[in-house]
Write a structure and sequence with these properties.
This protein is an alpha+beta fold and 177 residues long. The protein is built from six helices and seven strands. β1, α4 and β2 form a beta-alpha-beta unit. It starts with a helix and ends with a strand.
């Protein structure tokens, strides 16, 4: 929820995490810590009035197929570096706020190991000289853990941009006004 407030602050400067939390709590007493992609999408739709574009690399569950409950867009190769960054770049170029599911160190909130927790953070940009090669490939994020702007090399971000530390499953949310 703090991630959403941080992203919304960029577009609606007067919104705070406390304001968003109060709004969500007043309407939904079942607030979850560590929200899933589905829960994030529902909260965005109901509480901040953006249309969430939910993307994931995970396969459909049999129950979803049987009920035809396709609540996210499946991009099977989103976990591949080139495809993941192509999709990310597309939404950023359309000036759409983007939220990525990542693994962060529990002690400091930075991407990486050794003890990880799932975390959502706002992706605010990619280096403009990306095509020059590996040395120039950086991702800029706003991290609600401490409200800081951080820069991660593309390889490091790619390594930690997934749902579980032992499963390559990418989640991404683009916000359409």
């Amino acid at each position: 929820m703090v991630t959403l407030a941080a992203i919304m602050k960029m577009t609606q400067g007067d919104l705070t995490a406390n304001d968003l939390y109060k709004d969500v709590e007043s309407k939904d007493k079942n607030i979850y810590d560590g929200m899933t992609l589905y829960q994030m999408g529902r909260m965005i739709t109901e509480h901040i009035h953006y249309t969430p574009i939910l993307l994931s690399s995970r396969k459909w569950w049999q129950s979803e197929i049987e009920k035809e409950e396709y609540w996210y867009t499946r991009i099977g190769n989103l976990f591949q570096k080139e495809m993941g960054y192509q999709v990310l770049r597309t939404y950023l170029r359309h000036n759409m706020p983007v939220i990525a599911g990542v693994n962060v160190n529990r002690s400091n909130g930075k991407l990486g190991m050794p003890t990880v927790t799932y975390h959502w953070l706002g992706v605010t940009g990619m280096s403009s000289e990306w095509e020059k090669g590996d040395l120039y490939q950086w991702v800029r994020v706003i991290d609600p853990f401490d409200n800081s702007i951080e820069y991660y090399h593309a390889e490091h971000f790619h390594k930690h941009w997934h749902y579980y530390s032992d499963v390559t499953r990418r989640s991404l949310i683009a916000l359409k006004p």
